[in-house]
Amino acid sequence: MGGFSNLDAAWQRALTQAWRAHVLGNIGVGAVLTDRTGFIVGEGRNRVVDTTAPPGRLHGNYLAHAEMDVLALLPVGDYEHHTIWTTLEPCLLCMSAIVTSHVGVVRFAAPDPLWLGLDRLREVNAQADKHWPERIGPMTGPMAAFCAMLPMVWFFRNQGGGAANRAYESDHAGLVDLAQRLAGENTLDVLGGEPVEAVLERLGPDLVEAGG
Ligand SMILES: [Zn+2]
Question: CATH number for the domain including 173?
């Protein structure tokens, strides 16, 4: 693979957070916020099942998404030139939070077909349109495949599949198969203590074969 060290520092941190979320039993999504110079000003992860968290961090509920984790740290201010980097395309909740926080740019690694059509919100609402961020993504390749696959493993393990995974089936059947296989075996559990770059290295051939 060798790709991890070539990634933007923000992607490296977002991937690290996504893997940490997964290892701790949450949905594997990570997010990072950078300012106009590219400096990382915040990072977070999904915390939907966490029973404890640092002060001010959402956790243990359906709202504890990675992007929310980052955006909830922000004091009222101007974030038009900030970028939020997230391993999975923002859902309805997080797009609303991004619009409300006036963050100007969203970069996402994996697409989330569950929320197809959200872009049309800006057609029906002027305020949403005014603050709708520039959206850059999805990415391609093994890293993006990893970012798509990791949450799917959670849904297979905790909800027997789920709507998100079904939404992936038409265009990403190989990834859904890989996620289902990994959900049923201990490969990811054994890698739990490893840094995400080692996990990507280990899963690289599978991710490529699955369509990454
Ligand atoms: Zn979300």
Answer: 3.40.140.10
145 alpha carbon, distance to own chain's centre: 11
Q: What's the 93 CA to ligand 1 centre distance in angstroms?
A: 5
Cα 200 to Cα 1: distance, rounded to the nearest angstrom: 8
CA of 30 from ligand 1 middle (Å) equals 10
Q: How do residues 179-202 score in pLDDT, each as one tens digit?
A: 999 999 999 999 999 999 999 999
For residue 208, report the distance from its CA to the centre of ligand 1, in Å: 26
Rounded to two decimals, the pTM is 0.96
pLDDT digits (tens, 9 = 90+) for 24-52: 999 999 999 999 999 999 999 999 999 99
Distance 36 CA to ligand 1 centre (A): 23
Domain range holding 33? 4-209
Rounded to the nearest angstrom, the distance between the alpha carbon of 72 and the centre of ligand 1 is: 13
Ligand 1 centroid – CA 115 distance (Å): 10
Round to the nearest angstrom and report the end-to-end CA distance of the chain.
12
Given a contact cutoff of 8 angstroms between Cβ atoms, the answer to whether 139 and 109 are in contact is yes
Q: What's the confidence (pLDDT) of residue 1?
A: 47
Quote the number of domains for the chain.
1
